[in-house]
Amino acid sequence: MKFKFLIVSLLIFATSFAQKKPDKELFALYDKKCHQFIKKRQLDSTKIYINKIDELLDKLNDSTYYYKAELIKGTLLTLKSDYDNSMKKLLKATQFFKIQNDLPNYYSGTYHIGVCYYYVNRRKDAQVKMNEVVRNAQYVPQQMKINALSNLGAVEMELGMLNNKPKLIKNSKINLRKAITLNLKHKSYAYVTSNYSLLAEAYNQLGDKPTALKLLDSAVYYSKLSKDYNSEAFALIKKSHILTVKKQYKNALKSINKAISIYDKGKHIPTKIYAFIEKKKLLVAMKNYKDANAISDSIYNLSIKNYDKRFADGISEMTVKYKTAEKERKILEQRADIAEKGLLLQKKNYQIFGFVGLLLLLGVFGYFFYKQQQLKQQQLVKENQLKIALREIETQNKLQEQRLRISRDLHDNIGAQLSFIISSIDNLKFLIQDPNPKLKDKLTYISSFTTATIHQLRDTIWAMNKNELTIEDLHSRILSFLENAKKANNNKVNIQLEFNVKSKDITFTSIKGINIFRVVQEAINNALKYANAKSINISIQEKNQELIFKILDDGNGFDIQKVNLGNGLRNMKDRIVEIDGKLNISSNNNGTIIQIICNKNTTNKA
Q1: What is the pLDDT of residues 9-41, one digit of tens each?
Q2: Helix crossing, 142-163 with 103-119: angle to 10°?
Q3: Residues 440 and 486 placed together within one structural domain of the fold
Q4: Residues in contact with 562: Cβ distance below 8 Å, sequence separation at least 6, in sequence order
Q5: Which of 11, 106, 116, 14 is nearest to 68 (CA)?
Q6: Do both 569 and 480 map to the same domain?
Q7: Helix-strand-coil percent breakdown of the chain, rounded to 5?
C-alpha cells in the first residue's frame, strides 16, 4: 500500500514538473525579448512582453520569477522617466536577490539602480553602484560589464569637472580605455563611438587638446562604421569646439559645417540647434558678427519650427481621421434611411396584394410577412446604430492614442533634448574662460529661453493627455504656475489667488482649458516683466452662468488708446475669441485689470 502511494506521488510530482518546465522556458524567452527591446528603446514592444510575463507569474508561483519581472519593469520605468516608481521596484527586487544570495540578479539590479541614480542627478550614488558592478563583473553579462565601465568613466569625469578634481578625470580615462578595448574586441562599434567621445572630453578637460582631437577622429571613424550619423555629427561639433579654443578657425568652421550638413540630411532639429550654437560661438571668435547674428535667428526659427511642426502634424492627422469617420457615419445613416423607406414601400405593396386575392388567407400571410420585415428592419437599424457607435468609439480611442503618442514624443524626445541643451550651455558657461560678460549673458538668455520652452511644453502635454479638464485641474495648474513665479521673483511681488467656484462639475475641452491658462499666464508674466507691480491678485469666480477670471495688478499701467496691441495682447484676444469668450482690459497709472469671461455651460463643447 505504501509503495503504491509513493508511485502515485512521484507521478503527480513528475506531471507537475513537466507542466512548469515550458512556463519557465517561456519566461526566459520573454525576458530575453524584453531586454532586446529595451536596448533598442522600443518601449511599447517591451510592454507587450511584460504583459505576457505577468500572465505566466500566477502559473509559476515563484518569488524569484516575480522579482525578475520587477527588475524588467523598473528598467522600463526608468526609460519612461518615472524614476520614483522605477527606484521602488528596483530596490525591492535587489533586496530580495541579496537575501537569496542570487548574485547575478542582484548585481544586474544594482546596475539598473546606478542608471536610475544618474538620471536623477545623484552622480555620487551612481558612481558607487557602477563601481560595485565593475568589482563583481563575473556575475553579470559581458555587455553589462562593459557598459558599467563606460558609465563609471562618464560619471567620474562629470564629478571631476563639477568638483574640480583632476584625479577623478584621470580615473575616468582608465575605465573608458578598458571599455573601448572590450567593445572593439566584441565589435560593438556603436558603443565604441560613445566611448571615444567621452574619452576625448576627459583629455580636453585635462588640457591635452591634441590627443582629444585624435580621439574625436576615432569617434568619427567608428560612427561611420556603425552608420551612427548622429554620433558622427556630435563628435564633429566637439572637434569644432576644441579647434575654436585653439584658434584654428578654418578647420573648426569646416568641422561644424560638416556636422550641420549631416543634421540637414537627417532632419534632427534639436541637435542641429546645438550645432548652430557652437557655430555662432565660432563666428563670434572670428569677429564675424553679422553671420553670428543671422545664426541667432536660425536657432530661434529652428526651435519654433521643431515644436510647431510636430504638434501641427499630429493635430492635422487627428483632424483628417475624425472627418473621415464623420463622413462614414453620415453614409451609414443615409443607407439606414433608404433601407427604412424601402421596407415601408414593400409593406404597402403586400397590403394591396392581400386585398386583391383571397382576403383572409392573403391577409394572414401579409400580416406574418409584415411582422417579419418589421423585425428585419429593426435589426438593420440597430446594426447600423451599433456600427456608428463603434466607429465613433474607435475614432475617439484613436484620437486619444494619437494625443498620448504626441505627448510621449514631446516629452521623451524634445523635452529630453531641450534639457540636454540647457545642461550643455551650463557646462559651457562653467568651462568658458573668456571674461566677456556679453557672451555669458547671451548663453544665460538662451538657457532661460529653453527653460521657459520646457515649461510651456509641459503645460501643453498636460492638456493633451486629457480629453477634458475640470475646473479643479485648471485651478491646480494656475497655483503651480504662481508658485514658480514667486520663486523666480524671490517673493518680491505679493501674488494672491482667490478661488470662489461652488460648481465642481465645470469642465473644459483641452483646447479651451489650455487657452484660458495661457491667457492667465501671459497676463501675470506681463505684470511681472513690464508693470513693476508690487502685488498681483488673481480671482476665479462663478457668477450666474458666467465664469470670470480676473487679474489685477498695482503696476504702472498703460494707455490702451495710445498703445498699439503687441503680439502678446493680440494673442490673448485671439485665444479668448477662439473659445467664444470675452476679454476686457482696463488700465491707468494705478494698475491694470484683465477679465476673461466665458459661459460655464459651453466650456466643454468643441
Answers
A1: 444 443 444 344 588 888 989 888 898 888 777
A2: 30
A3: no
A4: none
A5: 106
A6: yes
A7: 80, 10, 15
DSSP structure string for 353-408: HHHHS-HHHHHHHHHHHHHHHHHHHHHHHHHHHHHHHHHHHHHHHHHHHHHHHHHH
3-class DSSP assignment, residue 465: coil
- Within this chain, do residues 326 and 449 fall inside the same structural domain, yes or no? yes
Whether residue 5 is predicted with pLDDT greater than 50 in this model: the reply is no
Judged against a pLDDT cut of 80, whether residue 66 lies above it is answered with: yes
d(CA 573, CA 565): 10
Domain boundary among the residues 406, 434, 465 is at 465
Q: What percent of the chain has pLDDT over 70?
A: 74
Residue 390 and residue 501 share a domain: no
Q: How many CB atoms lie within 10 A of CB 534?
A: 12
DSSP label of 555: S
Collect all residues with Cβ–Cβ distance below 8 Å to 256 and sequence separation of at least 6: 236, 237, 240, 275, 278, 279, 282
Domain tally, the chain: 2
Report pLDDT for 551.
93
Which residues does residue 538 pair with via DSSP β-bridges, in sequence order? Answer: 497, 551
Query: How far is the C-alpha of 29 from the C-alpha of 556, rounded, in Å?
Result: 69
How much is the mean pLDDT over the chain? 78
In a domain, 204, yes or no: no
Q: What are phi and psi of 397, to 5 degrees?
A: -65, -40
% of residues, the chain, pLDDT over 90 = 15
Cβ count near 12 (within 10 Å): 10
Instruction: Note the pTM of the prediction, 2 decimals.
Output: 0.46
Residues 432 and 328 in one domain: yes
> What's residue 339's pLDDT?
54
Q: What is the pLDDT of residues 315-334, one digit of tens each?
A: 333 333 334 444 544 554 55
Is 430 part of any domain?
Answer: yes
In a domain, 316, yes or no: yes
Can you tell me the distance from the alpha carbon of 553 to that of 34, in angstroms, rounded to the nearest whole number?
55
Lowest mean pLDDT among 78-82, 114-118, 309-313: 309-313
